[in-house]
């Protein structure tokens, strides 16, 4: 079945730790020149390096349109602080923020904090879902026009437009309201890996963008259809999800082209979600998978960001743009607009204002 959605492209800009903000700013600007939907910056308690959310808050004023999506680990962190930090990124980027939810499962990481032992992944992903739900409620706890800023009366906030969220999760409770006004996007974009395992249910219930790993277009389409079916079971509109194939790419090799008798173009290396070859072959692979309706787009993780991202933007993306398969400019200003996602209504606002 041919794709009906616009092609969406995103890229990871992490890799070996760097301690110079200009490194990440340069990569984000490069991705922005290619009109990519967003960049991600991976993070983990298991390795040294800068905090991804803080780094992208520094990158935000140095970029104009590219979406910024740091990994945020919900284990060992306070949900209220997660909500506030992501909302702050949305404000400083003027509506270009997202967050990629992740969990921490090892005892070594748990000992870094000393607050609780390691827990099973299924339990931690349920907690991540609770964090996503609490965050969405906190983002709604300020109505859009809650700020009055009336100097003559000295009133800054209309207290009738602030709301207690009174959220009770399995491992925490949050009363609210937030300390940060409602973000420009309403809800910053939530990204979750939904390939399988305990994270899949959390992705189906809470994610705006679901990352999947697949070896064939048919497998990708099957995983995407399953995630959308699960989302519908939670009362969500499956059309509100964007499914991106997560692909690690190594563009250090020459183009290979199709083998004799092979009509479907370049293949993934070693039968996995890993591509090795040249930027033209990568464009062929993306074109073929997207045209079959396998997914809404791709999230590309370069093996060597400084080298491969340049080849993605100036090679792969340029070719896709030449073929009119990918946009050449940003039609909007927010990450939700890039992805074709509506700004969510505020659950606490009067019904007539939500309509």
Q: Give the beta-strand count.
A: 13
Helical percentage: 25-40%
Largest sheet: 8 strands, parallel, barrel
Number of helices in the DSSP assignment: 11
How do the strands line up in the largest sheet?
1-2-3-4-9-10-11-13
Assess the beta-strand content as a share of residues: 15-25%
Mean of pLDDT:
92
N/C terminus separation:
34 Å
Low-confidence stretches: 258-265
User: What is the CA-atom radius of gyration, in angstroms?
Assistant: 21 Å
- Basic shape: globular
Structural write-up:
The structure is a single chain. This protein is of the alpha/beta class and 355 residues long. 36% of the residues lie in helices and 17% in strands. The chain has helices at 21-33, 52-59, 79-92, 107-113, 121-140, 199-206, 217-233, 279-291, 305-322, 335-339, 351-354; strands at residues 8-12, 38-41, 67-73, 98-102, 147-150, 155-157, 167-168, 173-174, 189-193, 209-212, 242-250, 274-276, 297-302. The strands form three sheets. Strands 1-2-3-4-9-10-11-13 form an eight-stranded parallel β-barrel, surrounded by seven helices. The longest helix has 20 residues, at 121-140. It is globular.
